[in-house]
Each structure stands twice: as C-alpha cells, then as structure tokens.
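So, can you check what follows?
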Amino acid sequence: MDTQAAAGWQHDGSFYWRQSEVYALTSALVVGRRALWLVDPGFLPREVADLRRLVDRLAARQRPRARYLLLSHADFDHILGVHAFPDFKVVAAQAAHRRLERSLRRGRRIDGSLLIDRPASAYQAFPIGEAVARRTAALPDAILAPISSHTRDGLLGLLTGYDGRRILVVGDHLSALEGPHLTDWPGTLPSFEALAGLLAQADWLMVGHGPPARRAEARQRLRDDLSYLLGLLRRRAGGASETQALALPAPPGPSPEESHRYHGDNVHRLYQSVEPAAASGLANRLEALLQAAQG
C-alpha cells in the first residue's frame, strides 16, 4: 500500500491504525483478500474525515471488496464515526443494539461539553447488519466471538489481511494505558478464555485505547491482567472483606484517580455478583488460564 494514502496513519502491510487526540481511541482498517474491515471509527470529526479519505483512496486502487464495520462494543466513543460510512455493513455483538440509542445520547452530551461540532446524523441510531450471537467464521477474512466482560456487548474479531497478517480486535481489554474495568464478572472468565485462544493465532493486538501491540507484548499484557483479576478472586474466595480487596494494587489507568476508580468498581462488582464459593471455582480456572499464558 502506498504511504501517501496512509498519511497520518501508521501501518504494517494490510493493517492501518490511528490513535485519536481524544481518549486515545484507536481506529483501524484491515485490508483483507475478500473484505475491507473498518474498526471503531472515531473520534474527532476531522479524524473521521481522514479515515473516510483513506478508505476511499485505498478502495480506488484495488478490486472491489465487501465492506464491514466492526464495533468492538457500543460505548459512545467507539460509535460516533459510524455515520460517515453508510456503505459499510455494521457488525456488532447481538447485545449492542440495546445500548446504541443511549450511547448516542451520551455522545451528544459529551460533544456539547467539549464544544465538538458533528453533523446531526452522527447521533442517529443505525442498523446493525450482522448481529453476532456466537462465535462464527461466516464473514470473509474474520473470526468473530461475542464476549461479556468490560461491557455485555463486546465483540472480538480476528481479522486476516491480504498479506496473511492476523489482527485481533479486543476493544477495551489489554490496553497499555488502562487495566481491566469490568461490568460482568461472571462473563469475564469465558471472555478471557476466548480472547486468549484467538490471541494465540494473532500477529497484532488492536486495543480500544492506546497503541496496538505485537504478539509478545500482547501476551505480557494478558498475563498482567489475568494476574490482577486472579488476585481479586482469591481475596473474595478466601473470605477477605471488600476493604481488604481494595488494598490490593490498582490496575493502570489514564490517571491515578481513574485507576483507583476502576479498581473500586471492579472490587465492588465482584463482591456484589460473585459469592465466595463461586469465586473459588473461577479463581481455579483463571489460574489455569494464566499458567497456559505463561507457557
């Protein structure tokens, strides 16, 4: 691919990415043999416009491909650029439709507070062309798996470029800028099991916030996050109080305040949703996953 078409973007062969000036949101484009995959387009209007130009320039130089827009989850910052790509079929977890309108309303409020001017179409609900309810390889150049961890509408995507590079899209997981921030503790273990299985096949990890990572660094991020979660589960399983669990080191965050907020949310939700006996079983399975990741 020519570097002029990728001005302002970084790329490795078929994999293009850019980090927004706001929220360090990472958007990506993967050029497959049969499909063009766009991921979480955002965030600032001019950044969305740059992505639109990149898509058009690349498409003009190649044979036609199917066009898909993968949403890693339905948080507002990941969906406010969808309006600029009506020629792409939106692919999201089946659960995402429940949050779309609420997330778009929140996005409008955030834009107002930041004095960001977007077209009205940016805040209008859009159709999900492919709602993924279970792991599937039915779409070209992709393996998709819904997960429930950071949010209940997450979607993993292992995307294969025309040159064989495999990029794993994980949304707000395994970021160098922020540690785990969980909504669904019971769903976290199967989600990380699915994530670890796909990561073993990937050359690149694409996260929702911050820089992507090659395989070795991605595996270290996985081990770090699993170790943190295992520590919390062991405290819960061992009968420690919520206050004692809060004494464990907090995960990384965009700021010390946010780090401690994430940690507090994780601990509170764990103690609200998982009883000690169940935490013991989850801890044993998570420990096995961590040991496999260390191999």
Q: What stands out?
A: The radius of gyration is 19 Å. The longest strand covers residues 154-160. The chain is about 40% helix and 20% strand. Confidence is low (pLDDT under 50) at residues 1-5.
